[in-house]
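Deliverable D5.2: sample structural annotation.
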Amino acid sequence: MKKFLLAIAICLMTATGVMCAEVPQEVKDFINKDFPETNFRFDGAIILPDNTMYLPLFPSKAEKVEEVKISEIYPAGETMKNKPEMVILNNRYALLKVININGKKTVIDMAEFPEEIQSSLLPQEILLPKGLVIPKSLEGIIGDIDVTVSTDTGLRINNLRTVNKKTTPVSELDNKSFYIATGMNKNIQVVSSDSKTSAYALEQNAVINDIKCYDGKFLLVTYFDSKTMNIISLMDEKVIKQVNFETIPEQIIIDNKNKIAYISSGSDSSIYVFSLETMTLKKQLKINGKCDKLVLSEDSTKLFYVDRLENAIWSIEIDNNYKLKNIGIFPNISDIAFTDEKMYIVSRTRNRLAIVDYGSDVLIKELHVCEKPVRLFIKGKDLYILGASEDIMEVLNTEEDVITDILYLKTDSFATNITPIENTDLIMVTNAKAGNYSIIDTNTKDIIKTSPLDVPVRALVVTDKIQTIK
């Protein structure tokens, strides 16, 4: 009879939306009183600032209360501030702390759990930590979750080489990790900023097209021959969600301000709007042509792209109901930048920089620049132009539109990418043919460090080193 009632409770909970895994705001507010900046992950997991993890249990029927308080707690007499193993709230929501016993992750086990626990259910999209063991007495809370995924070893492939070649990074790169797609193999190489060799790799099943990071905790990855974008949790080193498209997704642009990603699909003439809060597709923008070289303006109001069939540049005015605007046709475009209502467009083969007034589409100026310009980067009033062939960086003042500085990278290679280091004035210049990188201070316009890498870099993510879930 008890099992029958529990099955009914589970059905009721599924019907009331446990799949969506949205922790109620009043529960969030209760936890945030003691632990501000708690991460309420899109799958329902609750992660405190020190990476302590709680599993939320959703009741079959929540109770409305004026103020959320603790109804029952274990150990008895504790407070939320002391991170107890079990908390039952007066609205019937409950929290189970992920604990470590003899090297194994689990949760509290009791001979007889309170009724609020037994009749509750875990969010059905939750990613359980690697190796988590659910006590048999709690099997009823699992629902349709595939618990086998919690026992795998994740994506990590350890580096069998024992030699770890140390380097000394600039102070701003201390305690950071590089996640590198080399273009030479499928896996993501993970390199500590104080080393030139990868410590380990994250296994992938296809060659990576693009890789971007959100919130320092999640990698978004697209592949050349896959209609899937993977979301990788760096705290778990596991794929926590696969996003399926009708055609192959390509480039990813992160809008941190609005917690949105834009994902292009050239073969589908589409740009997808993806919510980074819920990790779900929100909108499909149908565009003209085959999207390439997707760029987001600094103020997040405009997207720019190149139709790779026609070499035509288009803008999408996000703040104007996604209105499409044709900018014009330019030969062999390698990159676009936008600032102060001016567009900067470089041609890789003609070594020319065109400056166009956005409002009138009038060509303001055209300049000869470094040979094979491949990337542009705006920092304040300066436009950085990366020349692959000559291995140099030119700096253009966007107020006067004149070249003011030339930086010689001296890496004897083919520099191809510029990566800003978040919360600093530094940019990192990498290349896809040889393993090294240069650090440029955009305040002083100086190359302050050139360091070796054992792998070439096609795409790069730089984050603080991530602690695993406790």
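Annotation notes: Residues 1-17 have pLDDT under 50 and may be disordered. The radius of gyration is 25 Å.
The annotation will be released with the project's public dataset once the embargo ends.
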